[in-house]
Amino acid sequence: MKFFVLLSCIALTILSCGCTNPWMTNTGRSAIEQYLISATIERAVDSAGLMRYSGKKIFFDYNYLAPQVDKPYVQGMLEMELSKVGCIIVAKQEEADIMIQPLCGVLATDHDSWMIGTPPLPIPVPYTELTFAIPEIPLLKRFKRMAYGHFAFNVFNAKDRTPLATITNINSSAQYNNWVVMLVPFTSHNMDMKDTKDTDTVYEF
User: Fold this and answer.
1) Quick one: which of 1, 22, 71, 151 has the most CB atoms within 10 Å?
2) How many CA atoms lie within 13 A of 29 on its CB side?
């Protein structure tokens, strides 16, 4: 009897160890969503043509970006892009040659999906109030996540606010797709998500 109890305790210990799960938390937005937004911002900044002001002292008026959740990344990318071509970013308008006023009409994510196959089917159990569901069986399925950006820029002489340029209709986007083809899942996207430096996978027991 004691031997049976001992074996039972060992078996329960093994099962409890084998069924443990790692502690997980999630950020407010998924990594894919953040990749989509950041790629959209980077493409818009790259397309704006602000490099024509290379070597100038630049003051940015960010007041029109205030409602945007991702305002800090837009600001950082704009200043980094102009710093690469020798611009000096100044904190006061009176110190600048050029004042740039970024506007952002759209910076958001969206999604859609479609499927060819069998949707989930609830099946009632006869003579009971119970039901069970047959899961969906996709032959071909796509779940698409997108980010869209719509930007414009007003450019002024910083000394007297004389208009120098209006840069409009700077549109950018990024997408990430989850596919299932004949029950085989895979992904596709148009972003650079590869690690800058390759690392080794470590296995620990």
Assistant:
1) 151
2) 13
One digit per residue, the tens of pLDDT, for the chain of length 205 reads 555 544 555 555 554 555 567 788 888 899 999 999 999 999 999 999 999 999 999 999 999 998 889 999 999 999 999 999 999 999 999 999 999 999 999 999 999 999 999 988 888 888 888 888 888 889 999 999 999 999 999 999 999 999 999 999 999 999 999 999 998 999 999 999 999 988 888 888 7
C-alpha 84/C-alpha 53 separation (Å) is: 11
Buried b or exposed e, range 90-123, using 16+ CB within 10 angstroms: beeeeebbbbbbbbbeebebeeeeeeeeeeeeee
Domain 30-126+135-189, what fold? Rossmann fold (3.40.50)
pTM greater than 0.85: no
Both structure tokens of 95: 């110190």
Number of other CB atoms surrounding residue 39 within 10 Å: 22
In contact, 145 and 176? CB cutoff 8 Å: yes
